């Protein structure tokens, strides 16, 4: 997923090493074959987490993991989630890291079919609802968080223009909203793919392509990933001229948290709740991991209250563990989506590549 509006996008492929309160750029970690380089105590070793650009976690939370397990954590960001998964598939058997974080239900079967993951039943999984466990027989992935992919809008822009924000998919194709929407490439971006799947769920096999043709005729803009769409093209982030963007139902709280100390009555951005598609995000142990012991410990840690309750104001996603609390800013400024669009994993698997190919021919020029 992921999604946090921050001052300046993170650079794809930037490697960061994070240990007890330490955040520094690094290259090769210099560890040996069993991941025992940079020994940090009992257990020892470095756990390298391959993830997307929007992965964030508090230093003190990672420090807790290091204190409890002896493993430090290296974060290797690799672009949007779609790009990250493609890279992991290409390096199957010789992975860049030990754990992959950021697989979601739109891309899950691509990773499972490629055989890049080693099964692990994480401690704490019994507190995760069955609806989020999409590989229950083999446990090749651990559900970590959930969110809804939705169009967001810039409240001030629409107020100044004297135009009501859109409410549905159909509204987005109305000439009143011409040249206002920016979306992510469904072939490279997890939210972009989720938005495409939402339109397939809404309009069906016989109608989704016609809908996208109408969006194309109405001036929809396509960019590679979430960071570019939100931080560079969306007017609600202060840098672009498009007041509509595909993002998340939980994105508005980020605009408040990063907008200054004073808390407004409402977030500067809103959510078009009629366009939302439910996303579940997973992590897994990579086949051929140099430090499988540390990788399994990290997967267990992702389901602890420490990590689950840190996520909402770091990555602006919902925890999956029953009873995990979310902060007041998250519930006050985020949108509640009572009936998001969904699609069965088998249906995603059967149609995804065909839909992406047809979508690309329609929209990417």
Explain this structure to me?
It is a single chain. The protein has helices at 59-69, 81-90, 108-114, 155-161, 169-172, 190-203, 208-217, 226-233, 251-257, 292-302, 305-310, 328-333, 345-363, and strands at 15-19, 22-25, 46-51, 72-77, 99-104, 117-118, 142-154, 181-184, 221-223, 244-248, 269-286, 318-319. It is α/β, with parallel strands linked by helices and 365 residues long. The radius of gyration is 20 Å and the shape is globular.
Compute the CA-based radius of gyration: 20 Å
The major sheet is characterized as: 12 strands, mixed
Question: Termini distance?
Answer: 26 Å
Secondary structure tally: strands: 12
Structural class: alpha/beta
Helix content: 25-40%
The helix/strand order is EEEHEHEHEEHHEHHEHEHEHHEHH
Question: Which consecutive residue ranges, at least 5 long each, have pLDDT under 50?
Answer: 1-42
* Count of helical regions: 13
Global morphology: globular
The percentage of residues in β strands lies in: 15-25%
List keywords for this structure.
365 residues; alpha/beta; 13 helices; 12 strands; globular; disordered N terminus
